[in-house]
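Hey, sorry to bother you again with one of my protein questions. I've been puzzling over a protein and I'd love to understand its fold better. Take your time with it, there's no hurry, and the full record follows here:
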Amino acid sequence: MNDHKNYSQSVSIKGIINSFTNAFNGFRVLLVHEYNLYIQITCGCIATVLGFIFNISPVEWMLQSIAIGLVIFSELMNTAIEKIMDIVRPEYDKRVKDIKDMAAASVLFTVAIAITVGSIIYLPLVIIFFK
């Protein structure tokens, strides 16, 4: 019972605002340092415009949004892992390189998923459009 009371007393508007401020700062850091994110955001914007042009279904909107979100999420995690590893082991280490490569591979994997989702949604519509 005391834990609940202490938790509710520790939650504040200022704390919530600080949490959001920190999260937006993390996204800003990603925008400044990761140029691949600009390509990913551009592709996500193009997919969104195509969604309006082709009037995709609500389920397709959900799948597309999840795919775009996964790519951006994986880029955030990749960048965080790279920055952590740079602090933990600033000098070259094959193990650190492997860790960074695996984190980068997670981005590649989610991009492949997003391309697959986009292809499933848009290829039939594009084929119909050009017939």
